[in-house]
TrEMBL record:
<keyword id="KW-0694">RNA-binding</keyword>
<dbReference type="InterPro" id="IPR015946">
    <property type="entry name" value="KH_dom-like_a/b"/>
</dbReference>
<keyword id="KW-0690">Ribosome biogenesis</keyword>
<feature type="domain" description="KH type-2">
    <location>
        <begin position="219"/>
        <end position="303"/>
    </location>
</feature>
<dbReference type="InterPro" id="IPR005662">
    <property type="entry name" value="GTPase_Era-like"/>
</dbReference>
<dbReference type="GO" id="GO:0003924">
    <property type="term" value="F:GTPase activity"/>
</dbReference>
<dbReference type="GO" id="GO:0005886">
    <property type="term" value="C:plasma membrane"/>
</dbReference>
<dbReference type="GO" id="GO:0005829">
    <property type="term" value="C:cytosol"/>
</dbReference>
<feature type="region of interest" description="G1">
    <location>
        <begin position="37"/>
        <end position="44"/>
    </location>
</feature>
<dbReference type="InterPro" id="IPR004044">
    <property type="entry name" value="KH_dom_type_2"/>
</dbReference>
<feature type="region of interest" description="G2">
    <location>
        <begin position="63"/>
        <end position="67"/>
    </location>
</feature>
<feature type="region of interest" description="G3">
    <location>
        <begin position="84"/>
        <end position="87"/>
    </location>
</feature>
<dbReference type="Pfam" id="PF01926">
    <property type="entry name" value="MMR_HSR1"/>
</dbReference>
<keyword id="KW-0472">Membrane</keyword>
<comment type="similarity">
    <text>Belongs to the TRAFAC class TrmE-Era-EngA-EngB-Septin-like GTPase superfamily. Era GTPase family.</text>
</comment>
<comment type="subunit">
    <text>Monomer.</text>
</comment>
<dbReference type="Pfam" id="PF07650">
    <property type="entry name" value="KH_2"/>
</dbReference>
Amino acid sequence: MLARALRKPVPDTEPAGASMPEPAAGPKRCGFVAIVGKPNVGKSTLLNALVGQKISITSRKAQTTRHRITGVRTVGATQFVFVDTPGFQTRHGNALNRSLNKAVLGAVSDVDVIVFVVEAGHFNLADAKVLALLPAGIPVILVANKLDMVHRRGELAPWLRSMQERHPFAEYVPMSAKNAKDIQRFYAIVEKYLPEQDWMYDPDELTDRSERFMAAEMVREKLFRLTGDELPYTSTVVIDRFEEEGKLRRIAATIVVERESHKGMVIGEKGEKLKRIGTEARQELEKLWDGKVFLELWVKVRSGWADDEARVRSFGYE
Ligand SMILES: Nc1nc2c(ncn2[C@@H]2O[C@H](COP(=O)(O)OP(=O)(O)OP(=O)(O)O)[C@@H](O)[C@H]2O)c(=O)[nH]1
């Protein structure tokens, strides 16, 4: 059976990102949603559209979950918590990637629903590899994205039927992540798979902060992600400079640590760790703002200011 999403016309509602619909009369729901798929199918576009604005979480609770939260959106009575699934490596089947995939499986195996994105009308080996990684027992919603690129809609029905044979998807949703009405409709489709429970985040704790704040958060996130559990949470990131020149942003930030020994953890051998923190933060900020970012990172021990040699430049493309 193809899901009702295929048949039922959806009433025009406000575009995604506009004011929230009135709270639905119904129990509160809240759960984790993972968006997976091979590169370039539109996962980020979908996530950004679903989350609306990039939202930061001011609550400490975020750090207690096993997931890296990429966005939270509360619509009506339901709170959607989107989580990241880093490194869905499908290109090479070597041992390293296999162990990476295991880590990914761990990240995906305790979400409430998985959104598997493919391009409408297409399914190749790379898609099959991602699909094969998905754990059993968790509902998977198939998003046939980029529907606007399908010119012969009639050919989609047999393709969707062929998809039913590949996996017992919970829903089949042809849509375009760039279409606001499709996004609006998608909340209602996903909602059913989230458990009835209280929200994890008070919507008041979700803020759409300034770009300056986002930059600090991004560096902070990479810092903790790449240093593992070793680095105490007392380390902070300070934005020293934030300048905009057209679409280019120049940012200078300082990672402030408590001790000399912590500095080593952040810098890594020959500055590799710090360089990676800078590169990854820059890449994500560029994606977020759709413009070039020059990010300069420094590390300072809170008590001392003579550490400027720890500077790493990650100007543009290294
Ligand atoms: N026409 C059309 N293009 C889309 C749609 N969704 C995404 N795209 C485009 O597809 C390209 C890839 O989109 P991304 O969102 O970056 O894809 P991704 O899956 O996150 O890619 P990776 O980060 O490489 O994994 C971009 O150029 C998007 O603008 C859609 O619904 N219709």
